[in-house]
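[job 4471] stage=fold_predict status=RUNNING
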Amino acid sequence: MNGSIHPGASLGAIYLTIKDLGRSLDYYQNRLGFRLIRREADNVYLGVADHVLVVLHEDPAASTSLYTTGLYHFAIRVPTRLELAQSLKHIADTKTQVQGFADHLVSEAIYLSDPDGIGIELYRDRPRDEWQYVNGQLKMATDPLDIDGILSELNHHTEGWAGLHSATRMGHIHLRVAQISPAETFYRDVIGYDLILRYGPMASFLSAGGYHHHIGINTWAGVGLPAPQDHSTGLRWFTIQCHGEEDLTRTFNRVSNAGIPLQKYADGWLVRDPSSNGVLLTAGNDSQ
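[job 4471] inference complete, writing structure tokens
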């Protein structure tokens, strides 16, 4: 186990820089169904129940960085297909723009973009016993989504939309990186995730505990992209919740032994991947 992150490790909150807090709060609360949990200094914490999923940091002077490394999208996982149907209906009722839909075989997904152009995936997993494997490798795809089938979950369901379900969690993070190989080495050999799938030469998917992916990395926007400039909208850092203090210590030691700088934060350690994407390592705290 010393060379791998614990199978029970999960993802926590994502920290984002946005330009206009009022505009973003309207979107995340009224369009997507996040709950305002607390305000603290320059940060606003959004999530479900007491579980923080997104932390917004307002910077009115922030610029949008195009063709840089950073966040491709973050993915919010709802617990059931019914919850996905309720969100989809609310998105339609509020005329919220959708970027796309996909059936990934392991999951069904809706793609959106917040007011700053930050990519968001809202999805539900199929049960693991329905996942398909070919020669021992998990099969994933990007097929058309059965929208009518999803909405049929609402038949005979009379309860109205009440925001995201309390069991909603951060499912995965998908990152733009400068080079696949160094990023894959970092997340596999240093952080300790398992490599699940290489999607051609330009994308890889990694996870803990046999999940389809907790981390996606890609160079679809180009190879050798620079890091974003300071005061840019988008990713500040995302959280990896190790499975307790011992798992955090082992992960910390792998990072330190690799000669990668770590910065102490109140609730963990901040490290940057080879493409300067920020990763906050914590011992895991479901309420954050």
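[job 4471] summary: The longest strand covers residues 10-18.
[job 4471] exit 0
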